[in-house]
Amino acid sequence: AACGNGKDGKKYTVATDSNFKPFEYLNPKTGELEGFDIDIIKEIAKRAGFEVEFETMDFDGLLAGMQSGRYPIGIAGMSITEKRKESIDFSIPYYDSGMILMVPEDSDIQSIDDVDGKKIGSRQGSTSQTYLKENTSAKVEAFPEIVTAYQDVKEGRLDGALYDLPNVKHYIATEGKNKLKTVGEVLQGESYGIAFSKGSKIVDDANKALQSIIDDGTYAKLYEKYFGE
Ligand code: ARG
């Protein structure tokens, strides 16, 4: 009932996370929410004619909130899955991702085939946690914040962590140089989609706006801004 046709200048609450670099995070100096996802959804809102305000929360809380219809829009590097599609509507894909294994620089683990019996960290509610449970015999430790898992790998409390490639790469480049590395192939190609409450009427307009952002080169500029080396 809270959903208009998207062109009414209405303000929608966008559920997001505050710690999934470089997709969404708090700028340490200004405290402002920033990131690829934040810029993408702001631009979509501008082009589709609605306003957004952000609410940050844990990713698993976000999933639950989207599934129950509590939030009209959610953006948080969320992978489009068949299971989630049962209770959430998704935009067209806006980012190609996949999961990668992170281990200490001196680890013997060479790929996901070596993790059986090892302590591998992930994030609660994520596709990586599901993957580990369904495809390996690792001792899976799922945290409310993935950064805790990364720190534990760095300090030797975990043998590795499995998570989204762009986030793992970002962490290694900024806080894990000479201490952490990725091994093996990118597992399970996944696409991120913007989440909408089931039956939302704004999906079509949001998709049109997203497509125009891709087509006119704005997407490439944002990609360069956040993922350019
Ligand atoms: N892509 C993964 C998933 O959908 C992890 C996303 C985590 N996102 C976040 N904002 N913490 O499960």
TrEMBL record:
> Per the record, GO CC terms?
cell envelope; membrane
Residue ranges annotated for the Ionotropic glutamate receptor C-terminal domain, each copy included: 11-229
Keyword Transmembrane helix present in the record's keywords: the answer is no
Keyword Lipoprotein on this protein? Answer: yes
Keywords of this protein's UniProt record, alphabetized? Answer: Lipoprotein, Palmitate, Signal
For the Solute-binding protein family 3/N-terminal domain, which residue ranges apply?
11-229
Name by which UniProt lists this protein: Transporter substrate-binding domain-containing protein
Q: Which SUPFAM superfamilies match?
A: Periplasmic binding protein-like II (SSF53850)
**Could you tell me where this protein is found in the cell?**
Cell envelope
Q: Name one GO molecular function term.
A: ligand-gated monoatomic ion channel activity
Bilayer-crossing regions:
none
Q: What is the lineage of its organism?
A: Bacteria, Bacillati, Bacillota, Bacilli, Bacillales
InterPro entries given in the database record: Iontro_rcpt_C (IPR001320), SBP_3_CS (IPR018313), Solute-binding_3/MltF_N (IPR001638)
Indicate the family of this protein: Belongs to the bacterial solute-binding protein 3 family.
Report any Pfam family annotated for this entry. SBP_bac_3
